[in-house]
């Protein structure tokens, strides 16, 4: 149900802004997926920390995500005004419901792609969590096998320094 007729020029402008924003989010999600796959490869192949280039990309993604989030908030406010809603929390779905034809299709296609990418990112996150947990479990088994002792979590001393909770060395070299 369309509450009132809006000028076509204004509708075209809001659609263009929405499409441009959704394209930025799709680009960001695509890059995040690439980085997540790189992390899986690094963790799976190298037992060491991710390289500096991967760390730099990750920092860049965090910065871009902040910029996109700010843009999303501005777009929500503008959509709210356009749709005549209060609270500034209008959604792309609400805009799609108000549009028809090619404009609705352009935005709906991008929204669907973003939802699919979000699902893929969540799945990759679960996989990465499992990979990291398996690496930690393997490390624990190796330490137990070498020393006969489980790795004790670090504790804080009364001076605030982090120390081992047991007096024994992790690997004893004395015979």
Structure description:
There is one protein chain. The chain has four helices and two strands; from the N terminus they run ααααββ. The chain is elongated, with a radius of gyration of 25 Å. With 175 residues, it is mainly alpha-helical. It has helices at residues 8-45, 52-83, 92-98, 101-147; strands at 155-156, 162-163. It has a two-stranded antiparallel sheet with strand order 1-2. Helices cover 71% and strands 2% of the residues.
Order of helices and strands: HHHHEE
What low-confidence regions span 5 or more consecutive residues with pLDDT below 50?
A: 165-175
Would you tell me the structural class of the helices and strands?
mainly alpha
Mean pLDDT: 78
- Per DSSP, the total helix count is 4
Strand order of the largest sheet: 1-2
The separation of the N and C termini measures 83 Å
Radius of gyration: 25 Å
Largest sheet: 2 strands, antiparallel
Provide the helix percentage. over 70%
Number of strands: 2
- What is the approximate shape? elongated
Beta content: under 5%
């Amino acid at each position: 149900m369309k509450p009132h007729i809006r000028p076509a020029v204004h509708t075209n402008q809001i659609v263009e802004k929405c499409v441009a924003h959704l394209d930025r989010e799709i680009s960001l999600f695509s890059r995040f997926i690439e980085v997540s796959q790189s992390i899986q490869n690094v963790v799976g192949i190298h037992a060491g920390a991710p390289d500096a280039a991967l760390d730099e990309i990750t920092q860049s993604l965090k910065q871009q995500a902040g910029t996109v989030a700010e843009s999303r908030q501005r777009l929500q406010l503008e959509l709210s005004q356009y749709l005549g809603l209060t609270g500034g929390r209008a959604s792309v779905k609400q805009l799609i419901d108000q549009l028809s034809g090619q404009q609705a299709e352009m935005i709906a296609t991008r929204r669907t792609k973003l939802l699919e990418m979000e699902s893929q990112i969540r799945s990759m996150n679960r996989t990465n969590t499992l990979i990291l947990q398996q690496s930690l479990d393997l490390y624990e088994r190796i330490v137990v096998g070498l020393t006969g002792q489980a790795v004790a979590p670090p504790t804080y001393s009364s001076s605030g320094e982090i120390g081992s909770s047991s007096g024994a060395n992790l690997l004893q070299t004395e015979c």
